C-alpha cells in the first residue's frame, strides 16, 4: 500500500525531469548556433555578414516577445488565483538595477537608430530593424521581470520551461553580441596605443566594420558612433542580469515551496556611515584615475608609462584595503556560533556559483600576468607593479567570495521568544505588581523611565509587603533583595552581550557597504576602456599578440560581470546583516 501510494508522485516527476532536460538541451543548441554565427561574423567568414547575425537575433527576440505576451495574458485571466512565490528571487533592488540598465540600453538603441538613419544608404535594413525590435523587447522584458520574477509556475510547465529557457539564452546571445562588438572597438584602440609604448614590431591591422559610405550629418554620426561604445557596458550588464533572473524563474518551475514567514530586510543607511565614506572616497578616486588614464594613455611613451604606474598603485592600495576588510569580517564570523541555512534556494545557489565561476576570468588574467613577469627577459619599470597587483587580485577575490557566500548562507539571528517576553515581577507595597521593562525593550533602548527614577530592574532593594510580624517581613525583604540582585546581574550580562552583538553587526554592515562601493569602483575601469591587460605590452611579448588578445577577450567579460555581481550580492548582505 505504501509503495502504491508513493508511486504516482514518483512517476509524475519523470515527465517534468525530462522536460527540464529537453528544454535545457534546446537552449544550449540555440546558444551554440548563435555563438558560431557570431564568431563567423567576427572573423569575416565567407558568406556570413552582420545582417545574418542580426536576423537570427531578431527572430529569437520576436519568439520571446510572443511567449511573454502569451504568459502575461494568461496571468491576467488568472490574477485572482493565489500563486506560490519565491521570496528570495527578484529582489526589489535587483529590479531597480535592471531597470536602470534597461533605460540606458534604450538610449543605446536610439543612438543605433540615429546611426542607421545617417548611414542608411549603405547599411542593411536589418541594422535598422534590430534596435527597434531590441527596444520593444527590452521594455516588455523589464515589465515581465517586475511582475513575474518571483513566480513559481505550476501550470503548462513543459511549455513554460521551453519559453523561459529560450528567453535565458536569447539574453545570453545578446550579451555575447554586445561583448564582441565592444571588445572589437577596444582592440582597435589597443593596437594604436601599443606603438606609443615602443612595441613597433606588432603589426597593426584594424578590424573595421565601418560603413563604406559617407555620413549625411558628420557631427551627429560622430556623436552616435562614439556614444554607442560608452553605453555598451550598461547594455552588457542588463542582458546578463536578465538572463540570471530568468534562469531562477526556470529553476523554480514546478518547485514545491515550504510556506514560512519571510522577514523583510530593507536597506538602511543608519550605522554604515564609516563604510560609506571610505567607499565613496575610493569611488571618487577611481573615477579620477580612469579619466586621467584614458587621457594620458597613448599620448606618448612617458605618459603611457605614468598612466599605467598610477593605475597599478591605486589598484594595489584599494585591493589591500578590501583584503583587510574581508579578513576582519571572516574573523568576526569565526567568533560567532551561528548555523547555516542549507534549505533549497535556486537564487542563492546561482549567486554562489556565479561568484566562483566568473572570478575564474580574473584569476586567468592574473596568472597570465604573473607568468609573463617571471618569464620575460626585459622588464620596463612599470611592469613590476603588475606583480603585486595580480597577486592581490587573486587573494582579494578568494577572501571576498568566502565572505559573501558565508553571509548569504547564514541564518538571520533570532532572539529567543522566552527572553523577549520575560518580565521580572516584583511585589511592591500594597500587593501591587510592578513590571520591569522587558528584555526586548532594554535591547531596543526603549526602557528609559519618564519619571527620572531608576527602573526597578536595577534597584538595589525591593520593598516587601508590610507585615505586622517584623521578623517575617525582614526575611521576606532579604529574600527579595537577593532575588533582585541576581536578576540585575543577569540583566547586565544580557545587555552587555547584546551590546557586543550590535557592535559586531555594525562592523559587518560597514564592511559590506565599503566592499559594495569598492566593487562598483573596480567595475568602472575595465567597463569603460581602462584595461592594463591590453596596454601593458609585456604579456603580448611572452605569449604572442593574438593568443594573449584571445585570452583577454574571453576572460575580461567575466571579470567585469564579477564586479557587478559582487556589488549586488554585497548589497543583499548589507540588508540581511
From TrEMBL:
<keyword id="KW-0406">Ion transport</keyword>
<keyword id="KW-0472">Membrane</keyword>
<keyword id="KW-0375">Hydrogen ion transport</keyword>
<keyword id="KW-0812">Transmembrane</keyword>
<feature type="transmembrane region" description="Helical">
    <location>
        <begin position="354"/>
        <end position="379"/>
    </location>
</feature>
<feature type="transmembrane region" description="Helical">
    <location>
        <begin position="229"/>
        <end position="250"/>
    </location>
</feature>
<keyword id="KW-0813">Transport</keyword>
<protein>
    <submittedName>
        <fullName>OTOP1 protein</fullName>
    </submittedName>
</protein>
<feature type="transmembrane region" description="Helical">
    <location>
        <begin position="93"/>
        <end position="117"/>
    </location>
</feature>
<feature type="transmembrane region" description="Helical">
    <location>
        <begin position="271"/>
        <end position="295"/>
    </location>
</feature>
<feature type="transmembrane region" description="Helical">
    <location>
        <begin position="541"/>
        <end position="562"/>
    </location>
</feature>
<keyword id="KW-1003">Cell membrane</keyword>
<keyword id="KW-0407">Ion channel</keyword>
<feature type="compositionally biased region" description="Basic and acidic residues">
    <location>
        <begin position="463"/>
        <end position="480"/>
    </location>
</feature>
<dbReference type="GO" id="GO:0005886">
    <property type="term" value="C:plasma membrane"/>
</dbReference>
<feature type="transmembrane region" description="Helical">
    <location>
        <begin position="311"/>
        <end position="333"/>
    </location>
</feature>
<dbReference type="Pfam" id="PF03189">
    <property type="entry name" value="Otopetrin"/>
</dbReference>
<dbReference type="InterPro" id="IPR004878">
    <property type="entry name" value="Otopetrin"/>
</dbReference>
<feature type="transmembrane region" description="Helical">
    <location>
        <begin position="129"/>
        <end position="146"/>
    </location>
</feature>
<dbReference type="GO" id="GO:0015252">
    <property type="term" value="F:proton channel activity"/>
</dbReference>
<dbReference type="GO" id="GO:0042472">
    <property type="term" value="P:inner ear morphogenesis"/>
</dbReference>
<feature type="transmembrane region" description="Helical">
    <location>
        <begin position="53"/>
        <end position="72"/>
    </location>
</feature>
<feature type="region of interest" description="Disordered">
    <location>
        <begin position="463"/>
        <end position="485"/>
    </location>
</feature>
<keyword id="KW-1133">Transmembrane helix</keyword>
<feature type="transmembrane region" description="Helical">
    <location>
        <begin position="26"/>
        <end position="47"/>
    </location>
</feature>
<comment type="similarity">
    <text>Belongs to the otopetrin family.</text>
</comment>
<feature type="transmembrane region" description="Helical">
    <location>
        <begin position="507"/>
        <end position="529"/>
    </location>
</feature>
